[in-house]
């Protein structure tokens, strides 16, 4: 039995989002067993949290742990061993930033998730969706316009697979679910990093979208959809997807559909800021870089529109390559239009609900994974506390960064 006792901290109450002042957290074998005052354990390692806030480990609902470069087409030509080494490094860095659970929405697979779970390398708990599904010429098709149609499109983008037609998308969805995917990802509209589609395009027919959703539901899983414009977002929500990734150009009808379908929005505002400033330095092709401006300025407005209406909003970053070091900056960006407490909810309790891990992660309560951060400052009132003042990272009851 291994035990950890974090003492005398102000512990976040996930139900009320207020501080339990001067409380202790006792964890045994990686799970929280008790939260209270003056707890005792003769065998536990002690961590003094006096003067610090104790919050749950963070959850990022939109990452690509295999995206070690912003040149996504080049990734498909890397040897698998080399790509895996990069993924292990990126995951370690995420953990050190305080993200103890992440959802990969294109690229990660059963092998990476199992390796992390077995402790072969340090990293966040990995909830993966396998390869994203894309139509020919869609956001998951990495071929340039001048390349032959006979070229294998899947070798040009390691994050996705290209499939067309209802029967084909059903087979592809079943294949991703066969590998253990926790969700399916579908490209429902145009994107920045793809070479031949327009941001304002819709992708996949409604019959194809509904077929993918049907297969996910049959396996008690769900679908996440990449989409920017109101037109593509609304089609995806009408087809039954559970989460919209990005959504920078949503409208009032989109908000109505989010609420009607009890769906989630996962904005990824930091990635556009990073792509604008650093994208070309880290491999983003020039044609893709020119598309960033189309979605950059609209993101905060979309976030404000959704938040004011009560849409459930989860935390996401979507950073690529060396830009992943900015993962925590999303807290500061969102705090321009949301209270810091709501941004923290998006990376804890709301994110856990989206991942169907309610009570398992994102809270400090008996039965939950003992994923804890010791923070200097008050993240309920100051987004900067999580952006740059995390002092200790604990995952599964093990102190991984800092010493408390």
Question: What would you note in describing this structure?
Answer:
The chain has 404 residues and is α/β, with parallel strands linked by helices. The chain folds into two domains: 3-57 and 361-401, Roll (Urease, subunit C, domain 1), CATH 2.30.40.10; 58-327, TIM Barrel (Alpha-Beta Barrel). The chain is built from 15 helices and 18 strands. The chain has helices at residues 72-75, 80-96, 110-117, 166-178, 206-218, 230-239, 252-261, 269-278, 286-289, 293-296, 299-309, 329-334, 340-346, 349-354, 384-388; strands at residues 3-13, 18-28, 31-36, 45-48, 53-56, 58-63, 99-104, 125-128, 132-134, 160-162, 184-187, 223-229, 243-249, 264-266, 312-313, 372-375, 390-395, 398-401. The strands form four sheets. Strands 1, 2, 3, 4, 5, 16, 17 and 18 form an eight-stranded mixed sheet that branches. Strands 11-12-13-14-15 form a five-stranded parallel sheet. The longest helix is centred in the N-terminal third of the chain and has 17 residues, at 80-96.
């Amino acid at each position: 039995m291994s035990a950890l006792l974090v003492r005398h901290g102000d512990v976040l109450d996930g139900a009320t989002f207020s501080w339990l002042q001067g409380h202790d957290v006792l964890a045994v074998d990686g799970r929280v067993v008790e939260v209270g005052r003056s707890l005792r354990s003769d065998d536990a390692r002690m961590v003094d949290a006096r003067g610090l806030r104790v919050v749950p480990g963070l959850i990022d609902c939109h990452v690509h742990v295999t995206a070690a470069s912003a040149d996504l087409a080049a990734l498909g030509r890397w040897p698998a061993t080399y790509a895996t080494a990069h993924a292990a490094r990126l995951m370690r860095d995420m953990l050190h930033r305080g993200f103890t659970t992440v959802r990969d929405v294109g690229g990660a697979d059963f092998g990476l998730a199992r390796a992390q779970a077995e402790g072969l390398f340090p990293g966040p708990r990995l909830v993966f969706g396998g390869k994203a599904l894309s139509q020919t010429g869609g956001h998951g098709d990495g071929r340039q316009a001048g390349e032959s149609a006979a070229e294998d499109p899947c070798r040009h983008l390691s994050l996705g697979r290209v499939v067309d037609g209802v029967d084909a998308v059903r087979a592809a969805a079943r294949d991703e679910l066969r590998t253990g995917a926790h969700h399916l990802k579908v490209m429902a509209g145009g994107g920045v990093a793809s070479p031949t589609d327009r941001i304002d395009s819709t992708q996949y027919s409604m019959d194809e979208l509904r077929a993918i959703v049907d297969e996910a539901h049959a396996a008690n899983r769900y679908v996440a959809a990449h989409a920017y414009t109101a037109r593509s977002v609304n089609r995806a929500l009408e087809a039954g997807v559970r989460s919209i990734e990005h959504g920078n150009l949503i409208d009032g009808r989109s908000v109505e559909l989010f609420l009607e379908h009890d769906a989630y929005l996962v904005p990824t505002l930091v990635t556009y800021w990073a792509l604008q400033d650093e994208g070309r330095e880290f491999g983003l092709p020039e044609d893709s870089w020119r598309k960033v401006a189309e979605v950059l300025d609209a993101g905060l407005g979309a976030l404000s529109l959704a938040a004011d209406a009560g849409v459930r909003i989860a935390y996401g970053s979507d950073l690529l390559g060396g830009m992943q070091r900015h993962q925590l900056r999303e807290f500061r960006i969102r705090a321009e239009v949301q209270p810091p407490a709501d941004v923290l909810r998006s990376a804890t309790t709301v994110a856990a609900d989206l991942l169907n891990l309610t009570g398992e992660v994102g809270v400090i309560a008996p039965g939950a994974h003992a994923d804890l951060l010791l923070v200097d400052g008050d993240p309920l009132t100051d987004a900067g506390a999580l952006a740059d003042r995390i002092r200790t990272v604990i995952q599964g009851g093990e102190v991984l960064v800092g010493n408390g």
